[in-house]
Amino acid sequence: MKHHYCFSLFLILVMLELITISSVAYGQGNVLKKTLNSSSLHRPKASLSIDYYHRKCPDAEGIISQKVSAWIKKDPTLAPAIIRLHFHDCAVRGCDGSILLNHKGSERSAFESRTLKGFQLIDEIKSELERRCPETVSCADILTAAARDATILAGGPFWEVPFGRKDGRTSLAREASMVPHGHENITTLLEFLQGIGLDMLDLVALSGSHTVGRSTCHSFMDRLYNFNGTGKPDPSLNVNYLMLLRKRCKRESDLVYLDAITPRTFDTTYYTNLMRKVGLLSTDQSLYSDARTAPFVEAFATQPFLFRSQFAVSMVKLGNVGVLTGSTDKGEIRVNCNYVNGA
Amino acid sequence: MLTRFSTSHILSLLFYSQQSYHSSQLKLEACWNQHFLDHTHTLVMASSKILYHLLLLFFVLGDTRLYVNGDTKLMKKTCRHTKYYDLCFSSLKSDPTSSNADPRGLAMIMVGVAMANATSTSSYLSSQLHNPATNDTTFKRVLKECLDKYTYAGESLQASVQDLADQVYDYAYMHVSAAKDYPNVCHNLFKQNPALVYPPELARRENALKHICDVAMGIIDDFNWY
């Protein structure tokens, strides 16, 4: 009699424990969902999740963050470079690490990709992660997380990165020309972004990454001497800035700050520059001269908090473009980011 | 060499030299008395005394005058290339370090003057914002916007000083140019809200900042960075 009593008591206790544990776990999940919704982050794709590596490779984000930090401390110009590398990946065939493939005729080998950098950093992160969690963390995920970490180190906002991307197997040099190069008009830019699921607000917000970083003179040389075949400089370029650029651009490969006023600070000076005709690229300046995008430029110029939160939202949207997930999408976990597995 | 010694140094030097002068004068008198007639002796003594006092006067007064003449030459030359000569010269002259400054130093002084204006205007706007008498919400919003712009102007000028120190003159010019533009945004906000009155004090400060920036840009422009 006593035994039965004890046993049933034991069962009840076990049940209670299980209920408590599951409810706590469920509650935490709910809180997470609530934070996501309240901070109005774009809902991650059905198969991407923030906790994707929590059981498979819990140290993944930490390792990526630590490596990115160490490299950028030694070379701060890597921060804008990694942000740009991530954009180039997502702009062509989605965020599938295709830009990282290093074979003859790959995107990376194209003329448009010649000034991309940050590949060695990604390689080092990949080696470390392969040691720690073999064949688990994709190159596409590494690059996406690295872009987030680089943004923070440059002084930008934080956002949670959803993970679970697989790496693609195709990378074609001719597709690299799809990426905006700085001479397009706003209509072309909008069409391109709409094609990958981003809108006008994203265009203006993501262009704000030009508050840091540099560009080669090649991207805007036409504005200095012979704009649109007129034989004259671009009239929407501030005269004093024109003199500065002519002096600094002796060769097409010379580098110039994208933000002339606060070149290494992640702020809204990029937008206030546009309002004073001190945008560097033609596409930068067009954001203000075009009536559709000008209101967004003005909004960001006067509201730094708005810019920071929208930038984070747009970066998450960018990171979700064309992702490969699961076996149906023919993605893989590349063991070496430079080569397709088994190649 | 003159600049190394202050007036007091020279005065004390002359005082002590006067002592030795008088003793040597006495010796000279004795010598003259021995060999020459009285009236020539007096003439020589008188003229040497006059000469001595003239020298004293020269060193005392001429010290400061030589001081100023030699060093305002550069200031005058520099200011001649700017849009507002009088503003330029008076601003530079009132700075104690200007007499020893090279063209780059003069540029830094001028940018410093601009910074002082931008900073004090920011303080003025801040006090207006926190003034309990200001209760119009639109006016407050515009004031806050203006405060931000004058703060940016100050920061841009600070960057310009650093550029000058690093001898990066084209960016120094750009930074002053930006500082000159920021007040326009503030003024435009008032234009967009006709119901609001653009405070005369702010208008005065805006004008001053733009003129000072023009002068600074004129000085930097001279450095032939293009």
TrEMBL record, chain A:
Cofactors required: heme b; Ca(2+)
Alphabetically ordered keywords of this record: Calcium, Disulfide bond, Glycoprotein, Heme, Hydrogen peroxide, Iron, Metal-binding, Oxidoreductase, Peroxidase, Secreted, Signal
Catalytic activity: 2 a phenolic donor + H2O2 = 2 a phenolic radical donor + 2 H2O
Signal peptide annotation: 1-27
Cell compartments where the protein resides: Secreted
Cystine bridges: 57-133, 90-95, 139-337, 217-249
EC number: 1.11.1.7
Residues given in the record as Ca(2+) 1 binding sites: 89, 92, 94, 96, 98, 107
InterPro entries registered for this protein in UniProt: Haem_peroxidase, Haem_peroxidase_sf, Peroxidase_pln, Peroxidases_AS, Peroxidases_heam-ligand_BS, Secretory_peroxidase
Cofactor, free-text remark: Binds 1 heme b (iron(II)-protoporphyrin IX) group per subunit.
Classification via PROSITE patterns: PEROXIDASE_1, PEROXIDASE_2, PEROXIDASE_4
Gene Ontology, cellular component aspect: extracellular region
Site entry (Transition state stabilizer), positions: 84
Domain Plant heme peroxidase family profile: 47-341
Biological process annotations from GO: hydrogen peroxide catabolic process; response to oxidative stress
Amino acids binding heme b: 210
Residues annotated for substrate binding in this entry: 180
Molecular function GO labels: heme binding; lactoperoxidase activity; metal ion binding
Keyword Disulfide bond: yes
Enzyme active site: 88 (proton acceptor)
Protein name in UniProt: Peroxidase
Species for this entry: Arachis duranensis (Wild peanut)
Lineage: Eukaryota, Viridiplantae, Streptophyta, Embryophyta, Tracheophyta
Gene that this sequence comes from: LOC107458785
From TrEMBL, chain B:
Family: Belongs to the PMEI family.
GO MF entries: enzyme inhibitor activity
InterPro entries from the UniProt entry: Invertase/methylesterase_inhib (IPR035513), Pectinesterase_inhib_dom (IPR006501)
Classification via Gene3D superfamilies: Invertase/pectin methylesterase inhibitor family protein
Keywords on record: Disulfide bond, Glycoprotein, Signal
Top-rank lineage group of the source organism: Eukaryota
Lineage: Eukaryota, Viridiplantae, Streptophyta, Embryophyta, Tracheophyta
Name of the protein in question: Cell wall / vacuolar inhibitor of fructosidase 2
Pfam families named among the record's database cross-references: PMEI (PF04043)
Domain Pectinesterase inhibitor intervals: 70-219
PANTHER family to which the protein is assigned, alphabetical: OS01G0111000 PROTEIN (PTHR35357:SF8), OS02G0537100 PROTEIN (PTHR35357)
